[in-house]
Amino acid sequence: MARYSDIDNSIWEDLQECSKNAKLLYIYAFSNSACRESGLYKISLPTILLHTKLKEVEFDKACIELNSKIAYDKDKKIMFISGKLKRRLSGLKTNINLIKSIEYDFAICGDSFVTRLFLNKYEGALEGLIEPLARGSIPLPLPLHIDKGVVKGEKKLEKDKYLDFVLLTKKEHTTINNLFGIGQTKALIERLNNYIGSKGKKYKSHYFTILNWAGKDGIRKQQITKVSDPTKDFKEPSDEDRKKISALVQETKEKIGGGK
Q1: How far is CA 164 from the centre of its chain?
Q2: For residues 215-248, b (16+ Cβ closer than 10 Å) or e, as one string?
Q3: How big is the CA angle at 158 (ends 157 and 159), to the nearest 5 degrees?
Q4: Phi, psi values for residue 208, rounded to 5°
């Protein structure tokens, strides 16, 4: 199903001095199907060039023109368009779904100069929702938190205890398993359990703490590869194909002296 993106018509004042390529790139970055509510998302450069018909050198020049509005990390394939979230900032602190969406975006994108730009851009709006940041570091995902008790009718999910201190819902545990595999999940839980036990540290979300640590440590998400059936597309050779194969085999034998 197609999604729709509302674009404030005041952007044409902001883009008045920009080239047509810069205008095209901005509209595309704002409205393509990969764009998230936070304006922070993953998209490959070949996909951008395919959709916009821009050449890479034209893309680079457009990014330079839009340097206060768009940032793109070619190595990590992360786009940030700064105007996407600003329309939603007034209700951010009570919008649980939007907060979860931003947390998800950070979990997917990981550490990058682009995600740092996001934090710098919205530092004021995120004040009170984020834990203190270590100098020169970025939490992965962004640890946004809100007291769910203030939302009427929302039930707290029951959490299972793993080892002595780690609390996760069944869905959270399954997600970590799917992302990193059983072995890495066990190691991450054990590490968090030992840290809490030795330091007495308290975390608002053990789930996001584990994702945060995994991101900082560069633990890769497991790749699930589908193994195809090698015989699925097999077809019996025709009589003509059999003759060609036999002739080729005979010719090869003669070349190596085995045809006599």
Answers
A1: 31
A2: beeebeeeeeeeeeeeeeeeeeeeeeeeeeeeee
A3: 115
A4: -75, -25
Residue whose token pair is 């730009």: 117
Tokens of 244: 């060609």
Residue 169 has pLDDT above 70, yes or no: yes
Name every residue whose Cβ is closer than 8 Å to that of residue 172 and which is 6 or more positions away in sequence: 159, 207
Cα-based torsion angle of the residue sequence 186, 191, 197, 198 in order, rounded to the nearest 10 degrees:
160
pLDDT tens-digit map of 83-133? 777 666 666 767 777 777 787 887 788 778 888 777 777 765 555 444 433
Q: For residues 190 and 198, what is the distance between their CA atoms, to the nearest angstrom?
A: 12
What Å distances lie between residue 138 and 42, 52, 221, CA to CA? 18, 32, 19
Domain ranges of the chain: 16-149, 160-217
Give the DSSP H/E element, type plus range, for residue 250.
helix 239-255
Cβ atoms 175, 158 nearer than 8 A: no
CB 78 within 8 A of CB 114: yes
